[in-house]
Every structure is written in structure tokens, then in C-alpha cells.
Amino acid sequence: MTWDPKDLTEDTQFIMGVKANKALGFGATRGRLYYRHPELYKYSGDQDDKLWLYDNGHMPVTGGKAYLMLQQDVVKLAGSVPEYVNNPNVVVEELVGFTVPKQMVEKMKRDMQRQKDTVAFS
After folding, report:
1. CA 58, chain centre distance (Å)
2. Continuous segment of H or E residues that includes residue 35
3. 18: phi > 0 → left, psi -120 to 50 → alpha, else beta; which?
4. CA spacing 20 to 30 A to 41: which of 31, 61, 65, 95?
5. Cα gap 14→1, rounded to integer Å
6. Distance from C-alpha of 76 to C-alpha of 115, rounded to nearest angstrom
């Protein structure tokens, strides 16, 4: 999976990391998806993003970290990695995406480029 900020648009579908983690069968084991698959892009939302996510029903009022992932990458992972294919704990139907406002997409583009640049210079 390649990261290209140009691929992010207002039509791009995202999924909350916690929801992706649960749908792939990791249950309450926080962050396992991120550690097992660092090749997946994840965006850590700022306070404004968290407010938007809460106001739009994507995040509980309790807050915490707001990681967003590319929904298509998580779906692709669920359908191609042997440990997820035919695994009864994986619920692909829960991998429902949503779009975010343009200003959040723009922040994600900058973040994605920054992460790419960091990896390139490591």
C-alpha cells in the first residue's frame, strides 16, 4: 500500500482506527492493528478534528486518541492477509467508511507527506 497525498480527496472514505481494530478481530486490544500493520496510514486527529468526529457520531464524548485510517486499505487488508480471510472474528461488514471535511483532508495530506518524508530520510 502506497501513500500518496494526491489520492486523498473529499470523497475518500475513512474509518476510525478503533473500529477497524475491532472489525479485524482484535477486540479491546487497543492499537494492535497499528503495530501489526505499520504500512497502513493512520492520522491522529487534532482537537478540531475530534470535535467534528464527535459532532458527526464517529467518536464518543469521552475522547481519547482519534486515529483515522483509509477504509479501502483496511478492507483490502481484511480480504488479502491469510490471518483475516475466513477468520470468524473478522467482521468486514463493520468496515463502513465516512468522508471528512476538506480542511481535515488538507491536514491529512500534509501529515501523510510529512510521514513519507520522515521514512525516506530514516
Report:
1. 12
2. helix 32-36
3. alpha
4. 61
5. 15
6. 21
Strand order in the sheet with 67-70: 14-16, 67-70, 42-44
Q: What is the DSSP letter of 23?
A: I
* Alpha-carbon gap, residue 26 to 19, rounded angstroms: 10
| Mutual angle of helices 47-55 and 102-120, in 10-degree steps | 130
Instruction: Return the C-alpha cell found at 30.
Output: 487497543
The pTM for the full model equals 0.90
Cα-only R_g, the chain: 14
pLDDT of residue 120: 60
DSSP bridge pairs for 42: 69
Give the residues across from 98 on adjacent strands: 14
Beta-sheet strands, E only, within the chain: 14-16, 42-44, 67-70
Q: How far apart are CA 9 and CA 97, in angstroms?
A: 14
pLDDT digits (tens, 9 = 90+) for 61-88: 776 889 999 999 999 999 999 989 988 9
The residues pairing with 43 across neighbouring beta strands, listed in sequence order, are 68
